[in-house]
Design a protein that fits this description.
heterodimer; A: 153 residues; mainly alpha; 3 helical TM bundles of succinate and fumarate reductases; 4% strand; elongated; B: 138 residues
Chain lengths: 153, 138
């Protein structure tokens, strides 16, 4: 072993023998639990939100460019594909926000006992679904209303 | 994981010498802390933005540009995009640190992450400022 970084993962046992420091067990060793699914979903939602920022930038640049560019964005966002992307982005953003609040509570030192995080784990799932549907529902109805108003119907 | 048989270290440095310089505890929490600070700031900003977008669905470009050009909205939009891309870059860096182990690829993806976040943020900022300076002051 000649790599300095590798060598820092080697320690001496009490009888002087060199031993590799133990690494924490990985996914394969655990039974599937809600908390680990939510943890993975938190990271996934962060990645999805990162992709969603492309849409945000496109929207802002188009709004600054003029009516034609903005109409293009509205056309794509109003498409079934666009609506699906928008739903996914809403879902990711809501989950990342709600689960992020739980992370902030953990950072402040609250909610570390198993019964508590198993219970509020279910709560954040329900809250995510409900809030996403509310936001998306309001969005769809306002959009349909706005579109019919714009065409005079 | 490889076993402990025939484990040999050919590095001529002590245990302490090997870990020295790998990172100081003093600045170790910086990344973690800034990620939290930006998340707290983004909470009200994101809610404001989602509500604002909902209220402008289907609105023509002129209306959206005028809205973005109002001083209050310009300031909040700028805060939103700057913090969003800063927070995003911090979060993606953690993912890169976790999954990209090879030193060269790690450097390349880290730089790409920071570069992409910067460029995207600048695109958004310039767009917001264009709307701000085009619209009549209100």
């Amino acid at each position: 072993m000649k790599d300095v970084r590798d060598a820092s993962f080697v320690a001496q046992s009490s009888n002087g023998q060199l031993v590799r420091r133990p690494l924490s067990p990985h996914l394969g060793i655990y039974r599937l639990q809600l908390s680990m699914v939510l943890s993975g979903a938190y990271r996934m939602s962060g990645l999805a939100c990162s992709l969603g920022t492309l849409l945000l930038v496109w929207w802002l640049v188009a709004a600054a460019s003029g009516p034609k560019a903005f109409a293009t964005v509205q056309y794509w966002v109003g498409n079934p594909i666009g609506l699906l992307v928008l739903f996914g982005w809403t879902l990711a953003l809501v989950y990342h926000t709600v689960a992020g609040l739980r992370h902030l509570a953990w950072d402040a030192g609250y909610g570390f006992s198993k019964p508590v995080f198993n219970r509020n784990g279910i709560i954040i799932v329900v809250a995510t679904v409900v809030l996403t549907l509310i936001i998306y529902g309001i969005g769809l109805s306002l959009w349909a209303g706005g579109a019919s108003a714009a065409t005079g119907g | 994981m490889a076993g402990n048989d025939n484990l040999q270290i050919q590095v001529m440095r002590s245990q302490l010498g090997r870990v020295r310089g790998l990172g100081a505890a003093k600045s170790g929490v910086e990344h973690w802390w800034v990620e939290r600070v930006t998340s707290i700031a983004l909470l009200p900003l994101t809610i404001w933005f989602v509500v604002a977008v909902l209220m402008h669905l289907g609105a023509p470009q002129a209306v959206v540009a005028h809205w973005a050009g109002r001083t209050v909205n310009t300031v909040l939009l700028l805060a939103l995009v700057m913090l969003t891309f800063y927070h995003m870059q911090l979060g993606l860096q953690v993912v890169i640190d976790d999954y990209v182990n090879d030193a060269k690829s790690h450097l390349a993806t880290s730089l790409a992450n920071k570069g992409a976040a910067l460029i995207l943020a600048l695109f958004a900022i310039v767009a917001i400022l264009r709307m701000a300076f085009k619209a009549p002051a209100a």
